[in-house]
Amino acid sequence: MQALTFTAVNEMKLQTVPDPVPGAGEARVRVRAAALNHRDLWIKLGQYAGLKWPCIPGSDGAGIVDAVGEGVDESWVGREVIINPALDWGGNPAAQGGEFSILGLPRDGTLAEAVVVPVGQLSAKPEHLSWAEAAALPLAGLTAWRAVMSRARLHPDERVLVSGIGGGVALFALQIAAAHGAKV
Question: What is the distance between the alpha carbons of residues 125 and 152, in angstroms, rounded to a whole number?
Fold first, then answer.
């Protein structure tokens, strides 16, 4: 398969790499669309924790499950899915635990023709979303949801100030707060 690979700081190549093979509890997703995050730029520039080279970046993606590993129901094959890139969150819903990581580093990410993830990280792609829309949702959308709903516990009619409104997380925070009935 083809994958965009970061080989060193500020070095990237489109390379042929082996298709990933799903292990126990995992599914392989043929990526139909992937989205970029500022995180990918920081990795490329060598400004992110836990760097390793080479790496296949990309946290956000959507696609079709084409293979599953041991212990995964075969009915997953053929499903259209969105990938939740937040791996090993931990037991506390308010904050990630020590094993937390994000797809795309250290684990190979979505800027490839296929990616392997734990099946628990997959959700059905809403039919009304295009592949590009579905791919753009996970990392920024989940970050905003956790900030506005899980951490701040927003209630309708509360006032919310969203700074940095040009960024993805801020735009999602604005949309979530407005949809929840807040004064943004």
Answer: 27
Please tell me the predicted confidence (pLDDT) of residue 122.
98
Report the residue count for the chain. 184
Q: What is the pLDDT of residues 94-113, one digit of tens each?
A: 788 999 999 999 999 999 99
Q: What is the pTM of this model?
A: 0.91
Work out the pLDDT band at 158, boundaries 50, 70, 90.
very high
1 neighbors 12 (Cβ within 8 angstroms) = no
Rounded CA-CA distance 80/31 in Å is 10
For the chain, domains (ranges, CATH) are: 2-130 (3.90.180.10), 137-184 (no CATH)
Amino acid at 77: V
Q: Minimal CA–CA distance to 87: which of 43, 138, 36, 144? A: 138
Rounding to the nearest 10 degrees, give the CA dihedral for residues 173, 179, 183, 184.
30
DSSP states along 135-153: HHSHHHHHHHHIIIIIIS-
Give the separation between CA 119 and CA 29, rounded to whole angstroms: 10
Q: Encode pLDDT of 51-79 as tens digits.
A: 999 999 999 999 999 999 999 999 999 99
